[in-house]
Amino acid sequence: MCAAREEEFLSDMSLDEPEAFHYLDQGENPEIDGVDDLKEFNSTLDAFQLLGFSEKDQRLLFRILAGILHLGNVNFEPGGGRGDSESCVIEPKCAALSTMASLLQIEEDQIRKWLCNRKIVTARESYTKPMNVEAVCLQYFLKKFVAVLQFFALP
Asked: Sign of the C-alpha dihedral, residues 13, 112, 140, 21?
């Protein structure tokens, strides 16, 4: 996707080189010898067409994937609550969060709140409880794992 970032239907997704995204820059080199990423991306587009994905559905899928890439660049810092170790915050002008919220068409203030907090519902009440940085990282790992499983379970 990053290799095709200048294609018209991806140009508004704020894509960059793979090294610019935390989720893609975990190894020593995001490039694979002998693999042409642009060619592979175009093969993926051809496969989507063959499988009957409309252009609108393809665009939606790429918006979701781009949103996930930007989400990986959101930094969580301890603090902002009762005790620094009990909560976390996202910097107020986080460009990655703004871009992710825009791509996924969700309200930035709401996603900022729910990325750093969780809601606990009991029989009589509901509570909003802050999460620390470690809890947020674990939550993301589990959600990414579930999302991958759901993606491969598509009909």
From this structure: positive
How far apart CA 4 and CA 41 sit, in angstroms, is 7
Antiparallel, parallel or unpaired: β 88-90 and 126-130: unpaired
Q: Which residue has the tokens 């592979």?
A: 40
Three-state SS at 104: helix
pLDDT per residue, tens digit, the chain (155 aa), is 999 999 998 999 999 999 999 888 887 778 888 999 999 999 999 999 999 999 999 999 999 999 999 998 998 888 755 555 678 888 889 999 999 999 989 899 988 888 888 888 889 999 888 877 777 666 665 666 566 555 555 44
Which is it for strands 88-90 and 117-121: parallel, antiparallel or unpaired? unpaired
Write down the pTM of the prediction.
Answer: 0.80
- Tell me the CA distances in angstroms from 52 to 26, 46, 47, 105, 138, one per residue in order: 33, 10, 9, 25, 36
CA distance 80 to 55: 43
Domains of the chain: 1-53 (1.10.10), 74-155 (1.20.120.720)
